Amino acid sequence: METQYQQNKSRLDLFRQKVYIIIYGVNTPAGKAFDIGLLVVILLSVFTIMLETVEGIDLIFHKELMLLEWIFMVLFGLEYALRIFVSRKPVKYIFSFYGIIDLLSILPMFVSIFISGSHIFGSLRILRLLRLFRVLKLMEFMQESSKLKVALMASRAKVLVFLYTVMVISVLIGTLMYYIEGPENGFTSIPKSVFYTIVTLTTVGYGDIVPATPVGQFLSMALMVTGYGIIAVPTGIVGVEIARQFSKAATGNDQNIRPSQQDSLNGVVCAHCNREGHRNDAEYCYHCGHSLHI
Amino acid sequence: METQYQQNKSRLDLFRQKVYIIIYGVNTPAGKAFDIGLLVVILLSVFTIMLETVEGIDLIFHKELMLLEWIFMVLFGLEYALRIFVSRKPVKYIFSFYGIIDLLSILPMFVSIFISGSHIFGSLRILRLLRLFRVLKLMEFMQESSKLKVALMASRAKVLVFLYTVMVISVLIGTLMYYIEGPENGFTSIPKSVFYTIVTLTTVGYGDIVPATPVGQFLSMALMVTGYGIIAVPTGIVGVEIARQFSKAATGNDQNIRPSQQDSLNGVVCAHCNREGHRNDAEYCYHCGHSLHI
Amino acid sequence: METQYQQNKSRLDLFRQKVYIIIYGVNTPAGKAFDIGLLVVILLSVFTIMLETVEGIDLIFHKELMLLEWIFMVLFGLEYALRIFVSRKPVKYIFSFYGIIDLLSILPMFVSIFISGSHIFGSLRILRLLRLFRVLKLMEFMQESSKLKVALMASRAKVLVFLYTVMVISVLIGTLMYYIEGPENGFTSIPKSVFYTIVTLTTVGYGDIVPATPVGQFLSMALMVTGYGIIAVPTGIVGVEIARQFSKAATGNDQNIRPSQQDSLNGVVCAHCNREGHRNDAEYCYHCGHSLHI
Amino acid sequence: METQYQQNKSRLDLFRQKVYIIIYGVNTPAGKAFDIGLLVVILLSVFTIMLETVEGIDLIFHKELMLLEWIFMVLFGLEYALRIFVSRKPVKYIFSFYGIIDLLSILPMFVSIFISGSHIFGSLRILRLLRLFRVLKLMEFMQESSKLKVALMASRAKVLVFLYTVMVISVLIGTLMYYIEGPENGFTSIPKSVFYTIVTLTTVGYGDIVPATPVGQFLSMALMVTGYGIIAVPTGIVGVEIARQFSKAATGNDQNIRPSQQDSLNGVVCAHCNREGHRNDAEYCYHCGHSLHI
Fold this sequence. Notes:
4 copies of one chain form a homotetramer. Chain A has 294 residues and is mostly helical. Chain A has helices at residues 2-8, 11-24, 29-52, 55-86, 90-94, 97-114, 118-124, 132-139, 143-154, 156-181, 190-201, 214-230, 232-251, 259-265.
């Protein structure tokens, strides 16, 4: 019956549906090919923008780069038009997050055709980089990616508390460094001293400012060793979360990390008191003592 | 009866009690709002002090920054007065750690009204940064924070032993570097060489001093790779401790990390079949179904 | 019978077989000695090439280094000839990965005897470094090495997803830094800004370019702290995998990390009591004592 | 009988024994006090040597520092004499590792009394730093320290394999960088390029040499991200080992990490086939099917 309904549809609708599956679908071969193609074009387009800012390259290959820009614009414009055309709710797409990004990434080029203010157009072209978010979105379909995301989300609160503490300590020690070293040694203001402190604590170590007084050097050494020691904290937090996510994935349960949750997964709910969270090898309910095998 | 006693209290006492709950309480909406407001004001006040040291900003916005300083001082002064007023043991608060910090953070501004030695006042104003400790204290009410603290405390001894070993090795290798490189290559003294060694071992790497002799470069490379390798030690220590803290939180016990210890804590051994390993809240044996409370 | 066949073999064949065991074998004392000797000669040869590029050393010891070069070439040439001579399928060896590397590492020296274009010969001699791959291959026989390799392979997909996300974020923030700081502060192009971003995010921190504007410094600080925080992600991923590999090695199975998967692999479910979770080498059910092989 | 024998001993012997317990003992209060006192004196002595190399301090406080030197020398000399005096096997102590270090740390000062070649004496005085090894030895009595040592020892082989691979890769990429960047960009020789590679891979990042060509910059970025990614490997290795050491300590067994070993601890050995490594809740031998409860 549904097939009959399909056959009655106009040819345009059929084409629209086919394109829809290609553009929005992720499981069909055509949908995957489109996604990978889009990903490649976005990355190439970003690479082109990057090259344009390299003076030597822009001088020699200016025309070629411009040509590429227009090719990418046409491709993105075509994609934008198709997305609106095949979408069942075009307005919703247009005002969605990705709809606005897609528009913003082609608008500056189109506007530059009619208005010859190439200066504004130049600095707005960079909006195309926002399309990289679409690349990140495409990655979400990978299972690994979503699990990492869950792990990071789960450890977010702990990591934030840690980073906040790091910030407060950095301000305190940065101020101290400002009064110890002073502007004559490069610590010209407290914000700059805090910058130095964070550069040191995170073991980045630019070396643009370096303590010159013995006290400042001693404090810096303490800071480095501290930074070296407390890098373990976010590692520990995220590591535990990742272990939980991926061991859950590997076994269909997460017995070794969170026993109770895993038990409920294999359906062990006491028929008498509806309790969950029994041991895997439990034969009787831990709460009411009824057999779990009835 | 207690309610009656409350009604008999004077209006002032009622007000005092209300303010007490706001200032010292953490569970009521008003208490939480006060804490967050205080946190914001402290951070803004710290930010103001930081901006004052930036020469460009201080020249243009000197008056505005001064005005902000006085607003913060009035707010902190008001808070200090209220804390003394509502506290049941005002003297105890005044001489407590946070009482002294609160006083120190407003004193320099008040003194500067009467004594026109703005120079001393300027460098003492920085004492207000001590209020950041209150920010850290506010964070302690967050559950995540206290668990991280416990994890860090538990691994303290091990991390200290590790850091002490790192220090001793740094002094030995730093001295070696001093004799290998010598003052002509920037290693002007042993303390500076030790500074270089710690900068390298912790992978900070300022680059203000760099080994110039082949032997020095070889030793430095060994040092870097060592630092890279032993960063694992604090990570391992703290990671294990964090895993223990948070898996304990997730399951209501810490079965998966220290099974036997947790079991022995509530002594749950089935009287009928001698099984161990019951849930903390188990009332019946998971194996034979006998009550655990006989 | 086989022994008789051996005795009938010619002396040359016996010699060939002996050499074959020495060169290709890894379990006999002679084979091990050959492997270690080869490893030492390769490392010495690499060290010689490195020294030749140090101007001071090359000027003084040019003749000695040249002599060493010829000694290594004769040794490698001898090894190459022997490998072809004793191999049962010489052609297969010659066109194998290591066969080509072995040839490439001696060819430039031999060619330089007949053709006196020492310039080309000089820069091709470096091909001998490819022999370091043989060193890595020798290491594969160590059990530790292969387990680490398995752990890295298993976590490859996750680490790649992570690194890809890091790359996308680096391009976005690098471009932002280019527009914030501009060419006047050293951020001369987007690729260079992305270079700066990755240098900062990975906590390398060369310090050749450093942000000069307050906004750029603030963004950089956020970047450092982020890099400090997310270094935990690959650590967590690989750590979990290593824990799995080496605990599997310690117990003969990987029961504690992935119990059900390991069990399901050999399909061991007791036919009598339907229990799962038997040891890999179990022959009887741990619960009811029935044989698992019926 | 033994007590009687003690009473018959001369007063000197009694004194000798008392001093022996103080110097060599670690469990008595006096022994502990001596150890801590020795530790403090060694650290102060090292600190004095360090200060002497700081030009500004040495010029002003030369006499005071010299005085301190002589005090430390007398103390160390006294300690050395006492150790020989009370030791039951003085010759064994004198030629032991610590005996030679103790002698070397005082010899240069004593020699300088008789021979007025203060130049030689100056550079040999540094031998006193060897006494820091005694500090490390004192730390070994701490339980934490010995467990960390065991964990590091257990993961030694794996970490070495990892570091060796890092080294080989560094030489390969370092050579590549030398040919890509060349001497004009600071990569003056292969050893220096390898130095740069290791500085980058370990995220130290001095910034004394920085790639200038696009290809070199791209390779460096790959190197940084690789370094960032593979720092996880030693962390994973050591982390697993530390988790094993300290969970073993906490529970008296290491059930969750190495099940089979823990099972043998609680005595589960099959009476029929002597197999170990049964599940904790096993009732029948996995190998021969006999009941484990007989």
